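Problem 12. The chain below contains 156 residues. Write out its predicted structure in token notation.
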Amino acid sequence: MRESVAGRTTGNQSIFGLTTGVTLQGSTIYEVEGEFELTTTGTTSHTEAFGFVLTTATVSGMGVAVNRLAATTTSSALGGYLAAVTPVVVTGALTTAQTVIYRVKGAIGISTAGSINPVIAFSAAPGGTSTVVAGAWFKFTPIGTTGSNVSIGTWA
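Solution.
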């Protein structure tokens, strides 16, 4: 089963087709990790951006690496670094149909509890269809309290 990401439109499109995403606790630092495969069939010039949309949560800080892996290099940039939840453009102009894998990993501090939703955003409607292939996943693992140092394991 594939999840449509409304590839004929611009703006933020939920990876999972959800309205609000997952609800996270406040005052908590989370390790975030995820992966999804995106297929686009349109050839209208556009860029892709990845990020998060917050419904009620507030973020105290974050650092998340985004890697976009393609069989052929068809964009001038293949990744980005998120220091804020706003989607960051991770490609140059794309004009071909593509199947790519996005890998996301980092940490995010949630100061006020609420919902967070991973999204893909197109700068222009790519045309055709755009879908996220079944098997996409994200996890948010609590690793500490915001405002404190997090140390896992024995450090010397």
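Discussion. The chain has no helices and twelve strands. Students who got a different answer should revisit the alignment rule from Section 12.3.
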